[in-house]
Amino acid sequence: MIRASADLADFKILLINDRVDLEEQLAATAKLIGGKVNVIESTSHLRDQLSGGASDLNMVMVHKFMERVEELPRVVREALVSYGTPPSSESFGVVNTSERILLMIDEAHRTQGSDYGDNIFEAFPNATRIAFTGAPLITEQHGNKRTTKRFGEYIDKYKLMDAVHDGATLQILYEGRTADTALKDKHGFDTKFEDLFRQRTPEEIEAIKKKYGASGDILEAEKRIEAIAKDLVAHYIDNILPDGFKAQVVCHSKLAAVRYQKSIRAAVQERLDQERLKPKPDDDLIKRIAFLKTVVVVSSDATNELAVITESRKEARRWNAVENFCRPFDLEDSDKDLTGIAFLIVCDMLLTGFDAPVEQVMHIDKRLREHNLLQAIARVNRVATGKQRGFIVDYIGLANHLSSALSIYAEEDAADLQDGLKNLLTELPILEERYQRLLQHFQTAGVMDIRAFVNGDLPDAQAEVRVIHAAVTAMKDIKRRADFEVYLKKFLQSLNLILPNEAGHAYRVPARRFGYLLRMVKERYKDESLDLADAGAKVKALINEHLIDLGINPKIPPIELLSDDFLANVQKHSRGDPEAKASEMEHAIRKHCTIHFDEDPAFYKKLSEKLEQLIQQHQDNWKMLADEYEKLRAEATEGRKTAHQGMTKEATTFYDHVVQITFDDGQVPAEHVDALKSLILKIVELLQGTIDIIDFWKKQIEVKKLRGDIGTEILFADIPQLVAKQERIAVEIVKLAEKRHNDLIQP
Lowest mean pLDDT: which of 312-326, 568-582, 653-667, 719-733? Predict the structure, then answer.
């Protein structure tokens, strides 16, 4: 837009960011507009490149605005060893005084309050400045370095809930694990942790330390960390692992980080042992838990650090921890065992600017406030397939003090932020509303006992069978089936978020029974579009377990028409109801005709017409229809049995298809019958002699030549109706030949 505006086209543009990955991303985006992007490689390059008047596009990392400290002579370094090197006495200096410079600074909140920001503005004193930030500095404590002081008023605001509504990010659900939160939300956790976010009296701190046998910082107390690790591992395995996502653990210090690593590894092993000792071990779950790995990612320390911290940092580097954490689990490839990194433990790194859509939960045991809080929790709101929400599990009391933590924001902004950070149980009203919508969907269709059925409250099995047949029959209309699938998916997605929390237990039986109904609808109408793939692993397991108990394998698709056990399965599904039996057979025949139509269009068109005639003749006589459908199924099983006089069955297939295309009434004038038969026999012979080579249908030049040869044969046959449609007939014959390739080349 700038380059297209006559009064702005001469601006020198400078894009400033603070991370290598952002620079690469922005450079790729900038190139889309055309022209050259100058990437500034060093401070000296910055001065040379940006001091001129060229109207060009430049990109620079903010670190280039800091002069490198000159190496001091050894004798001076030794003299200053106790104090460190003093700051430089020189400022960065002016690079370009032009007013026709536009500075576009990404993630401005991270640098504007430091020497970097001062140096940028000193280098380009008259430039126009535009800042991009998701966490502007807005409190009085930031003084003249507040975002609006540095850059002026807001041009545009894109708030947290704007991104959620647009589908760019996900809403975040909070779970408080401290005692106050647990009591307030009636979670009933077995373990409740102290609120350490708020200020504590010395006596309170001593009491907590005594509880955990701690002598130092309570946030580094090993017994406390062990207790939290057990809780967060249980939460992760029960809530997050089923859907294949990962976790970040945010703790107070590097020492706390390595202690968390040790405790999480122990808790994972303990859970693994428990699962193996169960009377009916879940082999898939055991395999997934055994695959899990835990790493610590912390910055290096210039001072002497504990050996255990150094070793954890080196391990993370050997494992390429961050990259492998960002990858989805791959349990099948032995070379990708490091994708099993499920717990990424940090204290100061990867809390901002870290994008990992595979991360769904952040376990927080660190005091975070203001923009640091918002930047950190945004790690879990990235969109990914199958990910409905992000989760924050709070072990320090943050949820109790959210208003305080967000107090720097204006009332309107704080309200928007709290809308984006909901307590887990705020999903309950949504779950109930979606449950009621499902019930209403069936009640509107005349199934008035649907509530009693899904809750298991009907008096006997006969009553249940009546409701099942009524519910499945009510879904005959394709739109009503599609709505059922959508409503059920939404209901299951909400339930998947809440389970295994007790608040969702009352909805488990309805979930199983609605899932059963969907399977029966899928069987009856042979509708492969009905699918719960996006519903969430926890509820899918719930439904599949119920189906297996009923003798239905959810991994096996609906029984096909020509299957040996088709009739037995239809009888089983119908439970003696003739309408249900006839309906399932009708839709099986329709599906079979649709799937196989291109293999013999004339035959399957005739079969479909017979089906419609039977429906018209017998209408609601379900027993008669079922009997006639069995005869039609036998005809479909046998396929084309006869051939026209003087022709093979293969040639007859092509003959009937050409007749169907060419003659509106399906009748060939008597004077053209022999000529048409002769033509089709020639074409079939031509096909058999041409297509019997490897990958023929991938060789477009050969296919085009074949189509031309068929067209020539049609012209030579001199049948006026065929000549008029010569091109279309040639195309249709080639399409049919491709579908019947194996039949054509059989000796």
Answer: 568-582
3-state secondary structure at position 499: coil
Q: What is the mean pLDDT of the chain?
A: 81
> CA distances (Å), 321 to each of 238, 328, 333, 687, 706, in order?
24, 13, 18, 58, 57
Please state which of the ranges 41-45, 307-311, 467-471, 561-565 shows the lowest mean pLDDT: 561-565
Beta carbons of 554 and 613 less than 8 angstroms apart: no
Residue 555 has pLDDT above 60, yes or no: no
The structure's pTM equals 0.65
CA 420 to chain centre: 19
Mean pLDDT (whole number) for 353-381: 83
Of 118, 179, 164, 122, the residue nearest 144 (C-alpha): 118
Q: Which of 667, 578, 680 is nearest to 628 (CA)?
A: 578
Compute the half-sphere exposure of residue 169: CA atoms within 13 Å on the CB side of its CA. Answer: 21
Q: Answer yes or no: are the C-beta atoms of 159 and 413 closer than 8 Å.
A: yes
Q: Which residues contact 153 (CB under 8 A, 6 or more apart)?
A: none
Residue 531 has pLDDT above 70, yes or no: no
CB atoms within 10 A of CB 731: 14
Q: Which phi and psi angles does 631 have, rounded to 5°?
A: -65, -40
154: which 2 tokens?
């807001």
CA torsion sign, 184 to 185 to 188 to 189? negative
Cα(684)–Cα(388) distance, integer angstroms? 55
What pLDDT was estimated at residue 211? 72
Angle subtended at Cα 415 by Cα 409 and Cα 416, rounded to the nearest 5 degrees = 95
Distance CA 56, CA 33 (A): 13
Q: Is the pLDDT of residue 93 over 60?
A: yes
* DSSP annotation string for 644-657: -TTS-HHHHHHHHH
**Phi then psi for 521, rounded to 5 degrees?**
-65, -40
Strand order of the sheet with strand 12-17? 37-39, 57-61, 12-17, 101-106, 128-132
Q: Is the backbone peptide bond immediately before 242 cis, with ω within 30 degrees of 0? A: no
Residue 313, beta-bridge partner list: none
250's CB contacts (< 8 A; 6+ apart) are 346, 347, 351, 362, 363, 364, 365, 366, 368, 376
CA-based Rg of the chain, rounded to a whole angstrom? Answer: 35
Helix (H, G, I), strand (E, B) or coil at 457: coil
Burial (CB count within 10 angstroms: exposed 0-12, middle 13-18, buried 19+), residue 688:
middle
In 615-701, DSSP assigns E strands to none
> Which amino acid, one-letter code, is at 552?
I
The residues, any chain, with a CB within 8 Å of residue 318's CB and separated by 6 or more, are: none
Q: Is the pLDDT of residue 404 over 80?
A: no
End-to-end CA distance of the chain: 67
> Are the CB atoms for 431 and 231 separated by under 8 Å?
no
What residues contact residue 622 under an 8 Å CB cut-off, 6+ apart? Answer: 578, 579, 581, 582
Among 579, 578, 629, which Cα is nearest to 607's? 629
Identify the H or E element spanning 235: helix 222-235
372: enclosing H helix or E strand: helix 370-377
Query: Residue ranges of the alpha helices (H) in 526-577?
Result: 537-549, 566-574
User: What confidence tier does 411 reach under pLDDT thresholds 50, 70, 90?
Assistant: low
Asked if residue 383 lies in contact with residue 395, where contact means CB atoms within 8 angstroms, the answer is no
Task: Note the pLDDT of residue 362.
Answer: 92
